Structures are given as C-alpha cells and as structure tokens.
Amino acid sequence: MDDKQKELQYKYTDYQRFIGVLLILSMYLFLGAIINTYLRPSEDGVALIGLTLVALSVGFWLHYQQRRIKKLLDKR
After folding, report:
1. Model confidence, pTM
2. Torsion over CA of 37, 43, 45 and 48, rounded to 10 degrees?
3. Which of 2, 32, 46, 51 is the most exposed place for a label (fewest CB within 10 A)?
4. What is the 3 state secondary structure string of 9-68?
5. Rounded to whole angstroms, how far apart are CA atoms 9 and 13?
6. Contacts (Cβ under 8 Å, ≥6 apart) of 1
7. 70: containing domain
8. Residue 15: what are its φ and ψ, rounded to 5°?
9. Gap between the terminal Cα atoms of the chain
10. Distance CA 10, CA 69 (A)
11. Which residues of the chain fall below pLDDT 50?
12. How many domains does the chain divide into?
C-alpha cells in the first residue's frame, strides 16, 4: 500500500467519523428545536432548524466526498 492510498484510506475513515458526529449533532439540534417550539414556545426553534440543515448539508457533502474516495481506492 503506497502513501497516497494510505492517505485516502485515512481520509475515508475520518469522513466516516465526521458524518456520524454530524448526524448525532443534527439529531440533538432538531430535538432542541422541537422542544423549544412546541413544548416551551420560543423563537429559538428557527435558528436550531437552520443549524440542523447546515449540519446535514455538511454531512451529505462529506458523504459525497467519501464516495469519491471509495471509487479512487477501488480503482487502485
């Protein structure tokens, strides 16, 4: 295994971990938005929904990058 392939493998596992963390963070933000909006009415729910969407967007982007890395690793 050459250095470039090792580096791609490390990136692949790092992206996998980041995606998991972002999904968990998104879940907490979404639950916080629901609690703030429906159980204890306040205006903070909109900001939390926005942060949830940002975290999910970054997670989807990392998943796309991870798939590209997987294709590169499969070629080699």
Report:
1. 0.81
2. -160
3. 2
4. HHHHHHHHHHHHHHHHHHHHHHHHHHHHHHHCCCCHHHHHHHHHHHHHHHHHHHHHHHHH
5. 6
6. 9
7. 3-75
8. -60, -40
9. 10
10. 10
11. none
12. 1
For the chain, the farthest-separated pair of C-alpha atoms sits apart, in whole angstroms, at 56
For residue 52, give the nearest of 65, 33, 67 by alpha carbon. 33
Q: Is the dihedral of CA 62, 68, 74, 76 positive or negative?
A: negative
Cα separation of 11 and 9, whole Å? 5
Q: In the prediction, which pLDDT does 1 show?
A: 64
- H or E segment and range at residue 70: helix 44-75
Q: 48, 29 in Cβ contact below 8 A?
A: yes
